[in-house]
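Please describe our next protein:
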Amino acid sequence: MGQCGITSSKTVLVFLNLIFWAAAGILCYVGAYVFVTFDDYDHFFEDVYTLIPAVTIIAVGALLFIIGLIGCCATVRESYCGLTTFVVILLLVFLTEVAVVVLGYVYRAKVEHEVNVSIKKVYDEYNGTNSNAQSRAIDYIQRQLQCCGIHNYSDWQNTQWYKESKNNSVPISCCKNNVVSCTGSLTRHADLYQEGCEALVVKKMEEIMMYVIWTALTFATIQMLGMLCACVVLCRRSRDPAYELLITGGTYA
C-alpha cells in the first residue's frame, strides 16, 4: 500500500514538473503582455507600480523552468538532497506568487485614482502631431478602445488643442470605424464614439491586473500539489528503511 502511494506521488510529481515547464512559458508570456500593454497606456500613470507584478511574474517563470529541471531529475533518481532543494525553492516561489496576488489586488485598487489624476493632463497636452507622445497615446487608445474624450466627445471642447484649431471638431481617432467620410466635426456627433476613454482605460488596466492575479493563483495551487507530492516521497524515504534499501539495491544484514 505504501509502495503504491509513493509510486503515485512520484508519477504525479513528474507530471507536475512537466506542467512547471509549460507554466514557465505562460508566466513569461503574461509578464511580457503586461509590459507591452503598459507601454501603450503609460502616459496615464505617473507611477510604474503596474510593472512590479509583471517583473515578479517573469522572474517566477524563469525560476519555474529551473525548478522543473531539478524536480524531474530529483524525482527520477529519488535524490533526498535534490527533492529537499526542490521543495524549498518551490516554497519560495509559492510565497512570491502569493505576494504577486496581494500586490495585484493593492495596485488594482489604485488604478482608477491614478487614471483620474493623469488623464486630463494628457488630454491637455495633446497637439495632434505624431511627434508628440501624448498625441500618439490619445489617438491610440481612442481607436483601440473606441472611445472619445475623457467622459465623452464634448470634453475636447475644453482642451487647448480644440481652442487653437478653431474648427469645431475632435481628432479623427474619435471617428467610428464604419464611417468613411468622418472628419471629426462636432456637428455630426453620430459619427463619433459616444463613450469616454477614462472608464475604459481603468477597465482595461483592471482586467490586466486580474489576468496576472488569476495566473499567479492558478500556478500557486499547482505548486502546492507539487510540494505535497515531494514531501510524501521524502517522508517515505526517511521513515521506511526497507524502502531505502529497495531503491538503493541493498539487503538486510
